[in-house]
Design brief:
Radius of gyration: 18 Å
Distance between the termini: 30 Å
Strand order of the largest sheet: 8-9-10-3-11-12
Structural class: alpha/beta
Bound molecules: adenosine-5'-diphosphate, magnesium ion
Oligomer: single chain
Number of helices: 9
Shape: globular
Strand content: 25-35%
């Protein structure tokens, strides 16, 4: 579902991703762990096409994300191609990033109407179902500022799901929440992981959550995946010293 082939990303002289290769298979839930500043968010931002790789290719659901083949040659993709491939991908950020001037329902219907071309009624119906799913069926008419952080994050999750993406990217989605609100959001994500076919790539420091939902944990450091494996193995008996050090600092 997701493939990075030899992806390099630099910011000036800072090589953040260094010939990075990894694959996420359909319906799998992969957790990305690693020190702060190691490039985890950059990986997700590349997938959202908020950034472009300097070298290498990214494939999503069999389609190149930032490139197109023309006359057998790989060329930078046009806006239309990027928009099409990106429809498969939803993202939830650490800072919920809701539209502050729109009510909850409208936050969720905006992209389905404008990007997918759903009618208002269809989009409203889809949004109401999702708000029920995330436990906020009665807050359609609230503005984001009238909700708690945990509620806002659940709206952001509903908003991502409203596009029916094949891939859900989660970037430290509970890091900005008060501790007592974390559980509700993680329970919701566990539920989504266990009851849908969605492929998940998630960056988190919540190791219990990672253990519960992940098929695979990838340890990322200095621009490369240095080790990956089943969560039990990764958390209980990692091979690499660097992974052991990191885990002993966060567990
Ligand atoms: P992580 O999510 O693992 O904490 P990031 O992907 O956010 O790491 O950042 C990786 C590195 O890239 C950091 O050194 C950061 O300073 C740098 N970086 C990220 N975004 C930018 C940017 N837009 N411009 C310049 N440097 C950036
Ligand atoms: Mg980050």
């Amino acid at each position: 579902m997701i493939r990075f082939d030899n992806v390099t990303k630099r910011f000036g002289s800072n090589t953040v991703l260094d010939s990075l290769d990894f694959t996420v298979y359909p319906r799998k839930h992969v957790t990305l762990i690693g020190p702060s500043g190691s490039g985890k968010t950059t990986i997700l931002r590349l997938l959202m096409t908020l950034l472009k790789p300097d070298e290498g290719t990214i494939t999503v659901d069999g389609e190149l994300l930032c490139h197109e083949r023309r006359d057998g040659k790989l060329v930078p993709a046009g806006e239309k191609h990027i928009r099409e491939v990106r429809k498969n991908i939803g993202m939830v950020f650490q800072q919920f990033n809701l539209f502050p001037n729109m009510k909850v329902l409208r936050n969720i219907t905006e992209a389905p109407v404008h990007v997918l071309g759903l009618s208002r009624d269809e989009a409203d119906e889809r949004a109401r179902e999702l708000l029920d799913l995330v436990g906020l069926g009665d807050r359609c008419d609230a503005y984001p500022s009238q909700l708690s952080g945990g509620q806002q994050q659940r709206v952001a999750i509903a908003r991502a799901l409203a596009m029916r993406p094949k891939v859900l990217l989660l970037d430290e989605v509970t890091s900005a929440l008060d501790p007592e609100l974390v559980v509700g959001v993680l329970d919701l994500l566990r539920d989504i992981a266990h009851t849908t076919d969605i492929t998940m790539l998630c960056v988190t420091h919540e190791m219990n959550f990672a253990r519960d939902v992940s098929d695979c944990v990838m340890m990322f450091d200095e621009g490369k995946v240095i080790e990956f494996g089943h969560p039990e193995k990764m958390f209980n008996d990692p091979e690499k010293q660097r992974t052991r050090e990191f885990l002993s600092a966060v567990l």
